[in-house]
Amino acid sequence: MLTFRKTREDAAGVLTEPLARLIPYPGLANPGGRPEDLTPGKGPASGDSSIKVSAVIITYNESRNIRRTLSKLHWCDEIVVVDSFSTDDTLDICREFGCKIYFKSFEGYGSQKKFAVSKAKNDWILCIDADEVLSEDLCKEIQTTMMKKPSFTGYQFPMNLVFLGREFRYGKESQRYFLRLFNRQAGNYNQALVHEKLELEGKTARLHKKMLHYSYANLRQWNEKCERYSSLSAREAVKKGKKKSIIAVLIALPYYFFRYYFLERNFLNGLEGFYWSVFNAQYHFLKYVKIRELNASLHATHSYNK
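-> structure tokens emitted (306 positions)
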């Protein structure tokens, strides 16, 4: 989930809050437990022999999602939250679940998640987004896997998209596998601004029970994220020296709509599948236009400096 926001600065431009700060929350003995689950003999803190797992999440104004996500992490040994100075109730909800909360100005998804991983006390990391929710069956499958002493360095989970309230059960956005559980001794996230990648050595395996991705609850949320994601993606592309031709811009909308709606079978996901295809085509179009705009700005700057 997006956590893009300027850091808090005073009138002179000086950062007035530390880049990383822990907020202790006394009174909850089990940092990974739900308030109603904090009883003796429950969870990995009760002395069982399973490998302990730290859940890590990055947040910014996730009050609409975070409670649902945290409620499925009661089995984790701890929950580490790295927040980009949320202004809603995100932190209050995280405190209810005994999360270890750090503040860090947003510098890109890769660096944000890498920092969060560094703050965990266990080597096995469950890194999920604030709008991703594990099913109870997946929670049990993970715990069973950890009790067997895993022979892989990471595990992928199947995930279904939930868009405008509809779970996608067909096409590419259903049963799509993502690497979310890993041993940090084998790797970590790269520094990408957006579309960060977990770079892991060794073999990974797939678990079978699903998780849900509650991506966008309404069109306003989509428009906000589309604007920010397309801007970050364009910056990342220009930094890598990429350019887009006028032809690429002209065909972006029809090409990506055809790809998402027909080739990726989103026509099977009802009206929401149609919306998803249109909006994703719009995202690629905006990104291409912004790449051209940024490259033109760089060219103008270089010409002026000559």
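The chain is about 35% helix and 20% strand.
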